[in-house]
């Protein structure tokens, strides 16, 4: 019975290690714009936040009014989608920042990016 008694704490430690390992991989969730969500004037929400690769950006919005497009820096600056891009339209998009560096997001509906629906995140 001694062997069994020492097994239990070992299993608990293993479980803790596994749980912690998965949270590190997934990272922290950030709701873009906090309680206002992905909306006009959200630009600047990202400044001063310690966002890291592996973290997840959550974009909450009305999908009949807005979208989220991940673009390159040029398209971000010009508010036009001309280069490679990826569009999200669910209204509750969870986008993981897979790698270090900058990531650029805009709403591609006419005039929306110009009204501050854009963020650039450095992971």
TrEMBL record:
* Endpoints of the signal sequence: 1-27
Read off the InterPro entries from this record.
Answer: BlueCu_1_BS, Cupredoxin, Phytocyanin-like, Phytocyanin_dom, Plantacyanin
Q: Name one GO molecular function term.
A: electron transfer activity
> Matching CDD domains, A to Z?
Plantacyanin (cd11013)
Pfam families of this UniProt entry?
A: Cu_bind_like
Query: Residues in domain Phytocyanin?
Result: 28-123
Annotated Gene Ontology cellular component terms:
plasma membrane
Keywords, comma-separated and alphabetical: Copper, Disulfide bond, Metal-binding, Signal
Q: Where are the transmembrane segments?
A: none
In terms of PANTHER family, this protein maps to:
BLUE COPPER PROTEIN, GENOME ASSEMBLY, CHROMOSOME: II
Give the protein's recorded name.
Answer: Plantacyanin
Q: Which organism is it from?
A: Aegilops tauschii subsp. strangulata (Goatgrass)
What are the top taxonomic ranks of the organism? Eukaryota, Viridiplantae, Streptophyta, Embryophyta, Tracheophyta
């Amino acid at each position: 019975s001694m062997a069994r008694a020492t097994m239990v704490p070992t299993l608990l430690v293993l479980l803790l290690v596994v749980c912690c390992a998965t949270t590190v991989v997934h990272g922290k969730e950030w709701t873009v714009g906090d309680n206002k969500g992905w909306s006009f004037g959200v630009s600047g929400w990202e400044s001063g936040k310690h966002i890291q690769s592996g973290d997840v950006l959550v974009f909450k919005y009305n999908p009949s009014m807005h979208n989220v497009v991940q673009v390159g820096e040029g398209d971000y600056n010009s508010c036009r989608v001309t280069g490679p891009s990826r569009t999200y339209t669910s209204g509750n998009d969870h986008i993981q920042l897979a790698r270090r560096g900058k990531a650029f997001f805009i709403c591609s509906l006419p005039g929306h990016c110009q009204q501050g629906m854009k963020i650039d995140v450095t992971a």
